[in-house]
Specification:
Layout lengths: L24 H15 L1 H4 L4 E5 L3 H6 L11 H10 L4 E5 L11 H13 L10 H6 L6 H5 L3 H19 L10 E5 L9 E9 L4 E6 L4 E5 L3 E3 L10 H4 L18
Parallel strand pairs: 1-2
Antiparallel strand pairs: 3-4, 3-7, 4-5, 5-6
Helix pairs in contact: 1-4
Protein name: Reverse transcriptase RNase H-like domain-containing protein
GO molecular function: endonuclease activity; hydrolase activity; RNA-directed DNA polymerase activity
Organism: Mytilus edulis
């Protein structure tokens, strides 16, 4: 630039192949340099180049005044030979400085924060929660999120959506119903009967008009709002010989 500062003019990157993923850290760092050199060959060849790396072992391996390493792996030797064609200088730069522990005031603030978000035995709540009416988020909450609370919220949301479209199905003993007919080859789908017993939360014993007793789940039962014994409703009930085909019956045990 006009002020003497440098600005990047291009960037490049790529993913590692399945074979390159097995490279050591030294080989991966070397591969990154070789890839950049080959990618921008037309800009770098014949000009002084400065290579900046945060991997210090590369300084001793690819130093510009050092010959090609004969004891290194063949892959490293090929890369060193490739770099020898360029006029370069390799420089080491620290990638990350060590984080300082902080001042006494920072340590005190961190201690007070952890103390004030800790629940007390007398109230069962943290002092900060009593003051601000909410829980303060700490690092522990980020590492171990409250999975149980999230699951309960999702379950309540599912229950809300289900209850919006659900219908309360209630069947009482002595009530007239239609039971699903599972007899093979029959054209009659529903058989009139009367509920005589509830054998489970959703299971009922139904007595048919021919005296047989069958058991059906509530999904296979429809409430009947008329009496099949009345001659006026005979057509509605379809009370003919095809209605009572043989099927599995359940005997009623007498006390």
């Amino acid at each position: 630039m006009d002020d003497g500062s440098d600005k990047p003019i291009a960037y490049t990157s790529r993913t590692l192949t399945s074979a390159e993923k097995n490279y050591s850290v030294l080989e991966k760092e070397s591969l990154a340099i070789i890839f950049g050199i080959k990618k921008f060959h037309q800009y770098l060849y014949g000009h002084p180049v400065t290579i900046i790396t945060d991997h210090k072992p590369l300084i001793g391996l690819f130093r510009e005044d050092k010959p090609i390493p004969t004891m290194a792996a063949s892959r490293i030797q090929r890369w060193a030979l490739t770099l020898a064609a360029y006029e370069y200088t390799i420089v080491y730069k620290e990638g990350m400085k060590k984080i300082k522990e902080g001042t006494i005031q920072e340590k005190l603030n961190r201690f007070l924060f952890n103390y004030r978000i800790t629940p007390q035995t007398t109230t069962g709540l943290a002092p900060s929660e009593l003051l601000m009416k909410r829980k303060l988020k700490s690092r522990l909450d980020l590492v171990f999120p409250n999975i149980e609370k999230r699951v309960q919220e999702r379950q309540q949301k599912q229950k809300h959506y289900h209850d919006k479209k659900s219908v309360n199905r209630q069947i009482n003993v002595g009530q007239g119903v239609f039971a699903r007919n599972f007899a093979i080859g029959s054209k009659i789908k529903w058989i009139p009967g009367e509920v005589i017993k509830q054998s489970g939360p959703l299971s009922f014993h139904i007595k048919l008009q021919d005296g047989r007793v069958i058991r059906r789940h509530i999904d296979h039962i429809r409430v009947r709002n008329f009496d099949c014994t009345n001659n006026e409703n005979e057509e509605k009930c379809d009370n003919d010989s095809d209605l009572f085909e043989p099927e599995i019956t359940i005997p009623i045990s007498t006390p």
